[in-house]
Each structure stands twice: as structure tokens, then as C-alpha cells.
Amino acid sequence: MNRRIGVIGAGLMGLTHVRLLSGAVSGAEVVAVSDALPEAAERAAAEAGIETVHGDAFDLIHDERVEAVVIASPAATHEAFAVACIEARKPVLCEKPLAETRDAARRVLDAELAAGSRLVHVGFMRRFDPGYADMKAKLDAGLVGRPLLVHCAHRNPVVPPSFGSEMIVTDTVVHEMDAVRWLLGQEIVRATVLTPRPTSHAADGVHDPQFVIFETEDGALADVEAFVNARYAYDIRCEVVGELGTIALPPATPVLVRRDGREAAELPDRFQERFGAAYVGELQAWVAGTATGASAWDGYAAAAVSEATVEALRSGRAMDVALDPRPDFYAAGPRTAG
Amino acid sequence: MNRRIGVIGAGLMGLTHVRLLSGAVSGAEVVAVSDALPEAAERAAAEAGIETVHGDAFDLIHDERVEAVVIASPAATHEAFAVACIEARKPVLCEKPLAETRDAARRVLDAELAAGSRLVHVGFMRRFDPGYADMKAKLDAGLVGRPLLVHCAHRNPVVPPSFGSEMIVTDTVVHEMDAVRWLLGQEIVRATVLTPRPTSHAADGVHDPQFVIFETEDGALADVEAFVNARYAYDIRCEVVGELGTIALPPATPVLVRRDGREAAELPDRFQERFGAAYVGELQAWVAGTATGASAWDGYAAAAVSEATVEALRSGRAMDVALDPRPDFYAAGPRTAG
Amino acid sequence: MNRRIGVIGAGLMGLTHVRLLSGAVSGAEVVAVSDALPEAAERAAAEAGIETVHGDAFDLIHDERVEAVVIASPAATHEAFAVACIEARKPVLCEKPLAETRDAARRVLDAELAAGSRLVHVGFMRRFDPGYADMKAKLDAGLVGRPLLVHCAHRNPVVPPSFGSEMIVTDTVVHEMDAVRWLLGQEIVRATVLTPRPTSHAADGVHDPQFVIFETEDGALADVEAFVNARYAYDIRCEVVGELGTIALPPATPVLVRRDGREAAELPDRFQERFGAAYVGELQAWVAGTATGASAWDGYAAAAVSEATVEALRSGRAMDVALDPRPDFYAAGPRTAG
Amino acid sequence: MNRRIGVIGAGLMGLTHVRLLSGAVSGAEVVAVSDALPEAAERAAAEAGIETVHGDAFDLIHDERVEAVVIASPAATHEAFAVACIEARKPVLCEKPLAETRDAARRVLDAELAAGSRLVHVGFMRRFDPGYADMKAKLDAGLVGRPLLVHCAHRNPVVPPSFGSEMIVTDTVVHEMDAVRWLLGQEIVRATVLTPRPTSHAADGVHDPQFVIFETEDGALADVEAFVNARYAYDIRCEVVGELGTIALPPATPVLVRRDGREAAELPDRFQERFGAAYVGELQAWVAGTATGASAWDGYAAAAVSEATVEALRSGRAMDVALDPRPDFYAAGPRTAG
After folding, report:
1. How many residue pairs bridge chain A and chain D with CB atoms within 8 Å of each other?
2. Are both B237 and B187 inside the same structural domain?
């Protein structure tokens, strides 16, 4: 018996979820879709053979046939939709960020606490990437000892001119906020943003690249190069340095070509390629209910770190992360693997 | 609506298919299973929640609820089951080999020709491995020019003592027979087997490793090191050398660890790990009907090459492959990618 | 006709130079050696067949047979010996640092300016490492566009307990100070030192690892992880990120071993292994007079950056580098490759 | 005191030796040069400041100032010059091959036996390549157990049209003949040559690539892809497969570049680049007398294998190597590392 899913949002991410749920995940069926642009929803429904198109996302959430919901609409809508899902007692996979602000994320958290059951999964898909998952397993097994440093790079080939300096924090570095918290099993307590001279390929006034430094509760440091007009590829790097050694993601490449005086590995161009297996793994685990991935707490913590990091970017100074104490309800917190 | 699958054989391979069809493939449902050992079938049914257990595989094939069949029983049974599926007009994914002999495979081919529709898919899963698939795409695009040589290694860490010299050809090298035919889009016309001194880890009298050399219809050479007691890992290598360069599979590793004076990549231990994504991709494509993979012709050709290679092993001489002309029905032959 | 060299210092570095000059460099002959410990000098002389042992380094400098001098004695002695060599108009290869303080280095610089000829070469041997040299050539050719960021790691397996926090700056990071200045062809103008929680393998009170951030005159950023009790290997990493791509040092390994479930590359244990070819290349170029390597200006600039970085470590704040204007005499400055 | 060297042959290889002996090797001085083309010898002498040019190589050999001789003239002259050096009791480094035929090589061997002292070093420089040397050390240490298979590739980007099928054996594969003998410490007893369809970049009638298979006295197999118009690079591959694992040469590259959607390592274009360090190491060891490298026996054995392999190419059949018993004088035979 397939689980009946409703998908809110039929843009790039929503469509990706519809396609994977329909063609690459076992035990799932997309039965409803909605989008603020009715024609986008209609197009997705036609492509994937989805029965119902809702004009209003709340109607989708309350549709009796819908057993679980994917939220892939713009960030500003996440809070309201997530809270509605919680109140309807329906499991929800909410694309990152959980909400646009720390306070909004707190409200989702409170809703879940009030509901008394873990319904929210935040779409930090990297936890399901084979490389990150293996890194996490080896760190937890103590293979390289206590982690001291994490070196990350997050490079996109290009972004639209509207993608400003703060979006580099909130849309790009947010993935590393979750990855660092999860890999180390520690909260991030302080953020600093350094802004080297920008690339000439950045839009005027945009700080690209940025070099972000996080400090964790136990005093480990994580540095993140975020470079969204890096031109050459979509390239994600992560190396954790422990007391006994390091663990790093290698470039993921299916073949090596020797030609024209070079041995070369192709790099992916888009996150959909790079993290294709991660998205499938995340959806499969969510549908099967075998793994929780990032919780509402993780979504809230990422929102808090994000807010502090934007402040650090604006002020040029190190900023503390304002984080409420973690409710016992989320005891395992970031220490639980996906 | 899910496609209703029956699985014949509940041993290692059958169970793998049951699990993937039930937990990792979209649009499929295993509704029946059978095995010569009733308790094996019962166990699989219980694990995966399969409704029906058939004592007789032919009953499974003729079960009205079963829309398509996976054959994962011992090789000796493949011919009869495959022919029965064809006669019942049900799509069938038959694990390699299609049949135990060239003549038996020819009979399956003839049954399909008589049925007049492509119902048989042979389980050469490597065609769905991301590395092989990318290699095939790049070869077809002419990236390294006309292929001249293929270097392969197929290493298992260990096999049971019953795994004899001829099984190294029929069970191990058979994968390379298909891979070479498919990558180059050419038939193999001649085989030679060289037998270096055996490893001390081989059973008495078993030639392990073997070094097999294939010649294709256009004069390209493929060499295959088959080494089934290689101890260190399950390791599959393939490099195609063309007139302009080479394309090779890299070691597939999720992370790199630096520890104890070394940078190391873990290698897989079993084919299930190494080709996990390939099995899922093959089953997904078969269920969706979006790709045909290896055809009955490919299964027949592999059987013919296999027979010649065993003869070459026995005789110590080069042996020609006896291959009937390809029926127009299979016009695209090995040139069709999976 | 061989160039007749005198070597001051017969400790680890001095002995390395004696051996390479005697056994791996063309056109050189070590004719004199001195050390504060006479027996060390005697031992080196006996091993390498050196005719003369001087009790006093100044005697060596003024020895008529000595045409050129290598200074490999403790840092505190560099200034006086370097100035004496300059005054004697003898070419001198001075191990890093050129002098213990910025002011002392300035006095060497002034001596060379007064002499009016380039006599001083500072032993930043990385400029002669094949990897660094290729990286420099590709950067200068514009292969990856204007450099924006440099990521470095400098890891030693272990240091003696006496190797304190400030030595990590002055003895370890000093190599990256020169490498960054040279690779980018820019002066470093500001330094910050972050101190994550120390490894449990560090001596009490020692900040290890340290994370150092340099800003260059054009606004590029360089980050350096300096980790001197990293246990697993001697490991030097460097990646320059430009507007169009990146250039990085790969792990330098002569062979790849597949064994025990892993493909592994051995990493070196000591800087002598890692930079063996660099030392030979540096000495060969210096003896042949075909390349100047790091100049007195480079030595002075490194001393100035070093002083600011130690201040940054002590204060926990970003510190500006106090650098006099570069005399025209050193016009090519750090932009000249080795 | 420098060793005084005479170099016979001022073509590509002779000039390479002159330059390395003059500019990269410790303790050597080229005092005389000769060439069949007097102007070539004059040019080399002028470039390297060599005092004496001999019109006749025998005069060079007998020149009292010359203490040791490098033979880098055409292969047809090697026997006579090597014998003359032996008779003059002067150490000689003879470029490969030791002689043009097995019988000629035998005569050099006999001359050395008659002289009763090891004077001949054959220029199989790969024994001094860091990768090969490390592979040899690890094999000898038993790291991967008893060797069973060796996979080699020897690829040149291009050769002149005059470089015919047999030269691919005698000039190209000859390096692998020595490498395999040396790495395994075994004689090669049988050779087979397979000729796949040639690349369209080969001259008419030339078999390129060739696939050569050697069998050793203990039953190990070595396969060599020799491809001299491979276009893309000068690429040397070697992997030894033992009972416990494998050891392979990695691509030797100083930096990794990420640009234009690829991570790429440059490959060398010419053997001089690829084996630059090996040539220096070989000359240095020879000048210092600290290592013998390939002996006259090794040169004789390579000539015998070469002759059998040419026969195998001509006949299309496996050919036995005709090898006299090894004199006790060369007891350590190929088992001695360089």
C-alpha cells in the first residue's frame, strides 16, 4: 500500500520531489499538488499523473486522501504550512529553511511540542548523501578521534543577480550550518563572516565569496568558503580534522578520462546532480519512516545560526548565536544521524 | 498503480530483488514468490509482506495477479522458466545467465522471436552502474575515438571451494563478456584463457587467477583478469583505450581518510555494495519499462562466448565463438544502451 | 670547477645541507663547516670529507677558500652571520627565518642595500617544490583567474613539548607566510589567529591547532591550519581559489596500494621526505646562480608578518603588519619565482 | 674530487646525459664527448664547457683523463664500445639496449666475465624512478604477497613514421622486459604478441598498439600494452597483483586543477619529463658507485627476451626465450634492486 503524499510548491524543488516520489521512491504516491501559480501545479499534475490540484495549500493539507506533506514553496510560507501540517497531525517534509526567522522557527517547534509527536522533517538532504553519511558514521565510531576543525567549501557555478550577500548566508551556508552541527553533534555558538575582495563575476555590491567561521559549544572551529559565482562547477568540499586524522569528501565522479594531456574527472554542474542520491535517500527514508533526518529542533537551530551569521555579515564582527535550551523532547538533537 | 511482480528464487539474489522491489523501487509490488525450498520462499514472503507463496514456479508464472516475473533461481532452471514467461506473454527479468548453454539460450531466443515481442531482460546490471553508463555515453559520443583495447579486472575477495575453474568463466567473466560487447557495440568472436600459477588461496586444482583475452569482430582486444580469491576487496576495473585517449572507472569510495601515515579509500567487500545503485537502477528501469537493458540476444551471445571461453580454458587454445546471425528483430543489438 | 661552500651549523638542517651539497648537487663542494658544538662539526666533516672545521663561524665566513656560505645555525645567530657574509661580499643561503625580529631582518636588508648587490637567499625551499612551482606558474599564466582565497594546512605528526604556541607561528606558519606572498605576488597586511580547543596531544597550555587568517594588500584571504601534533603524517595542503577555478597540491605519493579493503597512498612522515626534491632544487639553483629564490626583502617581509601574527595570537585580535616601503632595489619583490 | 666522464653520442640521449652530469649530478664532470657527427659533439662541448671532443669514440674510451664512459650512441655501436670500455677497465653506463642481438649482448657479457669485475651498467633508468623503486621495495617486503600478474601500459603520444612494428618491441617494450624481471626477481621464459586492429594514427602496416604477454619462470604473467601513437600523453602504467593485494603507479602530477567543469591532472608529454628524476638518480648512483642498477646480465637477458618477442610478433605464436644459465658471477641477478 503506497503512502499518499501531497506536495506544496511546483517550482524547481517541488517538481524535483514530485518526480522522485513518482519515479524513484518505493511505497509513495503523489496524490495532490498545489502552487501559488495554478498553471505550475497543473503542469506537474499532468506530468506525473497526479489526481488532484489544490488552489490553496491549506486545502491540500486538509485533503483527507493526503497522508503526508512535502513543503517546497517559498521560504516565507514554510511556517504557516508546517504549523498547519502539525495541527492536522500529518508528517511533513519541509524544505530548508524551516522558517524565515529564528522566532518563526521557534513557533513551528512550539507547535510540534504542543502536538507531542515528531512530525517535522527538515530537508537537509546532505545527511543522506553517501559521502556525508559515511563521514558521520566514521566520526561517531571515533576513527579520527575528537574533531577539532571542519573545512568546508560550497561553490555554485553561478547565481542570478538577485542572489545577494545575505542569501549566500541564508540559502547557501545554511547547508553547512546543519552539516557541521550534525557531523560534530554540537551546537554552533558563534559566527564570523570575512569578506575578501569579491569576484568580478559577482553582481555589484555582492560579497562573493564569503569566508564564514563557526565556533561550536565545545570549541571546535568550522570554516566555510561560500562562493556562488565560482564558475567552474558545483563543488562541495568537507574535511573534518580530528585528533588522529582527517576524513574528507572526495570529488564524486563516475569515470576518469585521459585525453589531451590530462587525466580528468568531471564535476557536477548543479546540486540536483551532486545530491541526486541524497534526495532519493531522504525521500525514501521519510516515506518508509525509517529515519527522521533533521528535526524541527535542527531547523530551529539552523535558523538561529543563520540569523547570527547575517548579523555577523552586517556588522563585520563575531556574533553569538541566541539559542533557547533544547527541550528534552529533542534529546538526541543533532547527534542522531539521518 | 503498482506493477505486480512475481519473484522466482528466494536465495541471495532473489532476496536482493525482493528487498529492492519492496523498498527502493517506485511503482512495484512483489505479490508472489516461489523457491524450491518452501521455507526460503516463506521467509522472504514474511519479511516483505508478500501475499502468495507458490510451491511451483510455473504456478507463479501463470498466477493471474502476477504481471511480470523476476527469475533468480539456479541457472539450470532459467531456460524453462523464461520460455514459460514468454509463452504467458509476461515481461521477465532473468538473472544472468539467460541459460546454461548456447543451445538453451537459443531456444529462449526462438521463443521470443515466435512471440514477436521483446519480453526478456537479462540481468547484466552493470549497464545501469553510473560509472559504466557514463563510460558508455562518452564512448558513443566519440570522446576517445574508436576503441582499440579494453582492460578489465574482476576481483572477488573469496569464493567457496566449490567455485571451480569453469565457474570463473561462466559466473565471473560472463559480466565482462556483456560489458565488452555493450561498451564497444561489437560481438566477441574469439576467446583465449591464460592460466598463471594459481594463488595459494585457491582450492586445489582451481585456476585462479585467470587471464582471458577476447577479440571482437572489428579486431579490438579485451583482456580480463578474473581473480576470485583476491582477498583484499571486491574490485572491478575497466579501462577502454581509444585512438585519442582512455576512459576508466575510478575506485568508488564515499570518503577519504588520512590516518596512520596513509590517505585511504575504502573498497567494497561484496558485489551488492559495489553495484547497489546498479541493481536499483536496473529494476527501476525494468519496472518503468523505460529501458530494455540486455536483451535475449545479448543473453544468447553471452552464452555463446561463455561456451567458447570454457573450451579455451580446457584446450589451452584460442577458440572461435559460434554465433548465429543476429535476427533483424534485435537490430539494435548490443549497441543499445540500458 | 666546483663552487666552494662553507656551512655554518651542523645540526639537523646543517647536516641535511652538507649531505645534499656533497651528494646530490652539481658543481658544489663543502670545504668548511662550523658549529657551536665542535664535535657536531667534526662529525659532519668526517662524514662528508670536509677539509676544514672552524670553531668560530666568522672565521668560516672569512676563510679565503670559502666562496659562498650556508647558514643553518639557530635563528638567533642569523642576523650577525648574514651581515658578516654580506660585508665579506659572499653569497649566502640563510635558513629561515632571515632574522629573529622584524628589526633584525631590516638590518640585514640594510646591509645588503649598502652592499648594493643581491647576496642573500632565504631558505624558503617550497618555492622549489615541483607542486608549488607548477602552481605558481599556472597562477602567473592566469589559468584560474585572479586569486581570491588560499586554503592551507601545515601538519606535523608531532613536535617536542618545548615547541610552544608562538613557535607554531614563527617556525611553522612562517612557510605559509612566504608561500602566500610568493604565490599571489602580494604583501600580507593583516593577521588574525583563532585558537580552537587544543588537541589532547598538545603540551599543556599550547594552542595546537591554530587557525591563522591573512589578508593581502589586494583583499585576498589566506587561511592556514597549523597543526603540529596531527599524529597521522607530515601533510602540507595548499589550494588557491581564483575567479575561474582552483589549483591544489595533491598528496604526493609514489605508489598506490590496494590491500585489506583499502586503496591507500602513503603520506610522508617528515619534511625532509616531503620536500627532499625542493631542497635539492633550491641548493642546485643557488649553486648555479640561476635563480634567486626568496630575497632579503622576502625574509624581512616574513619577519614582519611573523611579528604581527604573534601579536595577533597574544591579543586575540586582528593585527596590521608593519612593513616599510619596498626599496626599488627589490622591485620584482615576491613576484619573482624561484 | 669529481669523477671524469666521457660521453659517446651527442644526440638526444647523449645530450640529456651531458646536461644532467654537468648540472644536476654531484661529483661528476664531463671531460670528453664524441659523436659520429663532429658538429653535434662540438655543440654539446660548447654548451657544457667540455674540454675535449674526440672524432673517434675509441679515442675517447682510451683517453687517459676519462675515468668512466657513458654510451649513448646508436644501438648498433653498443657492443663494440662496451667491450672496449671493459677491456680498458673503465666503468661504463650503456644506454639500453646493451647490444642489438642476444649474441652480441652475450659477447659483452663474456668480456665482462673475462675481465672479472662488474664494469657495465645498463641504462634501464626506471629502476631509479621513485614510484618503481617504492613498488620494488614493497614487493620485496612481501606487502602484497607472492606476485601473480603484472599489468603494464607504455604509451607515447606519437612516434616518427619510421618507427616500425619491431621497434615497438625492441625500443619500447624493452623497458617493461627489464621492469618485470626486476620487480619480480624472475626471468621471462616465454613471449606472445597480440596485434589488435591498429590505430588510424599509426603509419601504414605498423602494428600499433601491440599487446605483449610474458610468462616468467615461476608462472607469473605480465601483460604490456605498447601504444606509441596514443596521442593524449606519455603515460606509463604498472600494477603488480599479488596474493594479498596490488601495488600500482599513480599518475605523477604536481598539481590538480579544477576548471571548466573538471578536476584535472596534467600528464607528461615526453619520457624526459616523466623519468627526469629517474635519470638523475641513475646517474648519481652510477657516479657515486653506490648502486649497480641493471647489470650486463640484465642487458643480456633483455636482449634474449627482445629477440623472442620479435619472433613472436613475426610468427603470431608464443616463443620461448633462449637464455643461457646465469653465471654465478651475476648471482644476485635481477633480484638486486638498483
Report:
1. 48
2. yes
